[in-house]
Structures are given as structure tokens and as C-alpha cells.
Amino acid sequence: MEIWTEKYRPSKLDEVVGQEHVVKSLKAYVKSGNIPHMLFAGPAGTGKTTCAIALAKEFYGDAWRENFEELNASDERGLDVVRGRIKNFARTAPIGGAPFKIIFLDEADALTSDAQAALRRTMERYTATCRFILSCNYSSKIIEPIQSRCVVFRFSPLSEEDMSKFLSRIAEREGLEITEDGMKSLLYVASGDMRRAINALQVAASLNKRIDAEAVYKMAAVARPEKARNLIETALHGDFLRAREMLDEMFMEDGLSGEDIIRGLHNAIFDVSIPEIKKAEIIDRMGEIEFRMVEGSNERIQLEALISYLVAMGKGGKE
């Protein structure tokens, strides 16, 4: 099956969606014929890799593959990689009359501290023949000496409007029909992550050419917002056994994990009509429950403990 995230990846900077402030600067660099070291920081699926590849295509033209090296630091993140593969590519001359090569280091925040220290020196030494573009989810994990050598670009989650337009364009080309509730569910599932939205659309399209909310939630590991909200409201009304049955449905029928459910409940709590202070108390308890599950506690017991807390809170409010 062809991966749509690659098939519909923009090949030009003008085609990049939702990061106009970044694209404007990158186009200025291309026009000037010079590019500094850069650091792309932001959430997953917001266009960091796409911008790097589109930049290389516009800058080098047909010779972009010979002058552009992409490495994923999560797979190769040791000192040997920096001293070997990266250093060897950086010190060789560019091809086709280009002024320099570009090394794109994806997920650079996965590099070890020793590898980052070695990379700092490599970036400084081979500036005449190579530029570095680093991408990461958390810029705080990149050492300060590297950050000071780079122009830092912050990528923000994509707006629903931008995502909706891009998904509609894909649907039109693939002969799909996305219903209104289907589009809302895709945007909810993605939460600003375009890659996740496209993958969810592709999986749903493998079942039916008509994409509705039922198809999206059936294939995505996300709690339906109305189910999560109903569970919280049922527990707050004091019906523990019914809330427990609803939790069982999420586990057994929807196939959700404990972490999927707690994330869904977290999103839904803001739509529940209770005082703000109670929302804060519930979110505090959710954070504790989520931490316990990540550390290896039994998911069902922890979520039932959360339901018990909601029931006790609801009864306390009535009294």
C-alpha cells in the first residue's frame, strides 16, 4: 500500500501548509543563495522534514539528492556516527557547482550528549562545505553550543482550517467523500499533526470511500469524545457500576489501551459542566493515574480508581 504521507509531501516551499512564518524565511535564504545552520523545533507532523526537503529541492534543483543527506538520529545517535558518516559527508566537496552540501539530522534530540559535543565541532569546522539542519521535538534537549550556532525555527501545530483544506485536496484526488462529522473526527484524532491525520484518512479509506466519524474512530486508537464525556458525567452523577460498564466497552469493544482512554478523558473534561476548580482537581488526579500506568501499574485498576474518585467527588458536591 502506498504511503500517502510520502505521496502528498510538498515538493516546493510554496506548497507547505500552515508554517508561513518559516516558509517566508526559508525562501529568502534560497533567494540569497546562502543558508545558515538551522534548528527546526516543534511537535510531530507539523512539517519539519517536509520543509527541509523542499528547501533542498528549491536550492539545488535536480542535483538535490547528491547534495542532501538525511539521517535519523533516533536510529543512529552515537559518537561513531558523528565522527564517521556525518564527518565524511561534511568534508567532501558539493556536486554540480553548489556552494555547499546540506546534512539534515532528523530527531536530533535523540543524540547522546557526547555525539552532540562532537557535532558542535564538526558544524564549526566544515561550514565552508556543509550546512546542518537539525529537527527535534524538544529544543531543550539540544545543547546550548549547538543552538547558538543555528537559526532556530519554531513549528506550531497546524490549524484546523489548514488541515481541513489539505485533507480535502487528498480526498478529491483519491475519489473519497469526507462527511462533516468525518472531517471533525480526523481533526480531533490528529490534534494538529498532519501526518497522523493523513494516515488516519488512508486507513479509513481502505474500508470505505465514504469517510465518516464511525470509520475514523474505528481505525484510530482514540477515545470518542462523546463516550469519554458520558463516562465522566455518569461517574460524577454517582453511577459507579454504569461508568465501569462504559469503561469495559472502551477496553473490549473499542480496543483502546489505558493510556488512550486517559488521554480521551483528559480532552473531554473541559466539555463537562462542572466548576473550574473541580476540573483542576480531576486533571491533577488524571496526571497521577497516567503516571502510574506509564510506570507499569494495572490499567484497569487505575482507571477504576479514577472513576471511584469522580463518584466520590460527585456525591460530595451534592451534599
Characteristics of this structure?
five-stranded parallel β-sheet; two-stranded parallel sheet; alpha/beta; 16 helices; Helicase, Ruva Protein, domain 3; Zinc Finger, Delta Prime, domain 3; 58% helix; Rossmann fold
3D architecture notes:
By secondary structure, this protein is α/β, with parallel strands linked by helices. It folds into three domains: 151 residues, Rossmann fold, CATH 3.40.50; 60 residues, Helicase, Ruva Protein, domain 3 (Orthogonal Bundle), CATH 1.10.8; 94 residues, Zinc Finger, Delta Prime, domain 3, CATH 1.20.272. Helix content is 58%, strand content 9%. Helix 5 links the parallel strand 2 and strand 3. Helix 9 crosses helix 10 and helix 9 runs parallel beside helix 11. The longest helix has 20 residues. The model has no long low-confidence stretch (mean pLDDT 86).
Specify the CATH homologous superfamily of the largest domain: P-loop containing nucleotide triphosphate hydrolases
Strand elements, count = 7
N-C termini distance: 58 Å
> What average pLDDT do the residues reach?
86
What proportion of the residues is helical, as a percent range? 55-70%
* Sheet with the most strands: spatial strand order: 2-3-4-1-5
Computed Rg: 24 Å
What is the ordering of alpha helices and beta strands? HHEHHEHEHEHEHEHHEHHHHHH
The dominant shape is: elongated
CATH architecture of the largest domain, by name, is 3-Layer(aba) Sandwich
Please count the helical segments.
16
Low-confidence stretches: none
For this structure, the CATH topology of the largest domain is Rossmann fold
The first-level CATH class name of the largest domain:
Alpha Beta
Main sheet record: 5 strands, parallel
Structural class: alpha/beta
Portion in beta strands: 5-15%
The number of domains is: 3
